[in-house]
User: Fold these one by one.
Assistant:
Number 1:
Amino acid sequence: MGNPFVTTLDITLADKLKEELVKQNFEISSPPHTLFSGKKKGMSCTLYASGKLVVQGKESAEFIEFYLEPHLLQTFTQTHPLAEVKQSSRIGIDESGKGDFFGPLCIAGVYVKEDQFALIQSIGVKDSKTISDKNIRIIAAKIKNICLYQIVRINPPKYNEIYANFLNLNKLLAWGHATTIEKLVEKSGCREVILDQFASEWVVLNALKRKNIQLDLTQRHRGEEDLSVAAASILARDAFLEGLEKLSLEAEITLPKGGASATVQIGKKILAEQGLEKLLSLCKHHFKNLDAILEKTRK
């Protein structure tokens, strides 16, 4: 990093910062007009009595990105600087849970006004896949305080019922996207929509046509690069995590994310201890994981 990173720190956080610097092997000193200064090879961190904080040096990027911003400042202006290009108001749409055996499918829409893009970027909005579960919950709450949004959460029983009608995941996703778009268009009046493309364009267009919705619709791969879609991806992920947590409490066992072998092991445990009906109420039936869980019982 060529230029120093300069910000203002709440003085009540000074001790917490100092403890972290000591933990990371900084040499602490107290130059004039400062509360303290920490130095180690490649970087320095100085907190002035006024609350001004200056971090500089070629090794400072990692310290700022992985400690200072997410844990102390809880803003992301340095690692994700504000966009300079003026953005037009639009609705972003994304989903979470389609690759998870347990838990709901969640589709979220976020309406971002043109004067809100810089603000949502400053709170850390980016592709949800790059954010920890803990920070997803924090950033999602902030998005909800700033923007209009709509979330459609389809829990396993309803998901399996709908899937039985469509017999196709992309058609189910398109129905979920169209439903979310319809509700958010009603709330916001905005008809400019962008979503992460998950199938051929006509799949979503047909679903929207059936709902008689006319839009300026953009579908693109890596849609999360757009801030409105990134915000939607965070709300969808947050809704999925919340839904999975509720189902885990209901099942009295921690349900794993994803579709790896751990889901089969937990599934077999639920089947053995709580029965088939309980298992079927927690998972997506068309996944091959269910066949693996039921393999021996079918022989």
Number 2:
Amino acid sequence: MRRARWLAEWRHSEKKPVFYHCISRVVDRRFVLGAGEKEHFRMLMRMQEKFTGCRVVSYCLMDNHFHILLEVPPMAEEGLSDGDLLKRLGALYSEAFVAEVAREIDEARRIGAEFRIPEIHGRFTYRMHSLAEFMKGLLQRYTRWHNRTHSRTGRLWEDRFKSVIVEDGVAAKTMAAYIDLNPVRAGIVKDPAQYRWSSYGEAIGGGAKGNGKTARAGLVRALRAHQGCGADASRWANEVSREYRKLLMAGAVEKTETRIGRNGAEETRRTRKGMSAAEAESERAGEISRGRMLRCRVRYFTDGAVIGGKAFVNEAFASARERFGTKRRDGARKMRGEAAAAAGLLWSLRDLRKGI
């Protein structure tokens, strides 16, 4: 029997944010997501975002897979007003359909059958504020469009999507950058701002309104949720955008320069934008800086189950103790391999041993 997906135990709390890193790959890892396909996927993703009330914090669409850092806030205790429900329905359904739902609600109130209104709302709200329903709706809608467009049948995605619980703060910021650096790791671009199908590319080139504003608001949430800041795109300007840019470019090789060393011999030196003296010294000692780490494939970020500070990972472990054997005493596992630069700062629930 397939094990139930691991969801954050605090997912119904309005005080503690819930982030998931979601990943899915095309069956056989075929490269079938071209420019048109990515545009349509992104359109459906934004529609699903408006309908469900979930928030895409960071994302990247590649030729055979995608990454989404998704925030799933709880439904408000009082539920949705009629107006809010109809507005959300407008993100997915036609005007005629929304008008018919509005007519149903008005008729129920007119005849004094208010008891019917929660049932009308419930036909749609069960698909809102849910990780599973967000991903199910997005993947199914895209698959139907893709199969119809390309005259194919059958499943498009390898298996059910992967998800990793991510702590707000350092972990969320690091995961967002890791996602936006996908096209850099793949050698498609040197600067993540040049890749249009990513949160950072959309934030930089998407314009002052619409999805450009939405992308900036998501990244503000990634960097500032731990400070209690909402998704306010206006906060992107100045310090938030500079901080994120520095993180993205910390491991970038900008240029090489040739100079005469102290012993009189000619030597070639690589310079990197945003690299501190301490990071440079670490690299000379053979260690991988955090900036360089983000430009490597880090399996912990896709298979680690829970990523965050040590206390956060241990708390998640304690809340789901029944998932583990009796010999395991705690949850936090130190990161190794390509992720060693984050050891002591970020921890993983799973102790990976291969492909790290």
